[in-house]
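Before surveying the methods themselves, it helps to consider a single example record, giving the amino acid sequence and backbone structure tokens:
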Amino acid sequence: MDGEARLRADYFSNAVLINDGKGNFSVKELPWQAQLSCLRDAEIIDANGDNLPDILTAGNFYEQAMALNRNDADFGTILVNKGNGNFTAENINGIIIKTQVRHIKSAIINKKKAFVIARNNDALMIIK
């Protein structure tokens, strides 16, 4: 049909793009624990003090087509950087985020780093 664009999607895993410093990127699939639902936002952190960039993630999406079921298996995850583009998934110190997360933003609260979690149709959540 004239004027129509045909698009194709063939990669659906949650992944990171690793920059080699020369403008080239490689795709690195995240661990299986980060594949349980769609990730909606992430914030770079240093979760364990090793100066490698770790990633705080959260997500879920309830409004997709009924035949596909809703994506609701993510409870918040820290992807710990093991170097060379390898990550392991860990829970957020016993915190469970049982809802749809739209945004994560870092903030300083009482001189300490915190993360503000914006949840869809719910109150803000703060993780210190």
User: Anything to note?
Assistant: The chain has no helices and nine strands. The two ends are 54 Å apart (CA to CA). The chain has a mean pLDDT of 83. The CA atoms of residues 87 and 102 lie 23 Å apart.
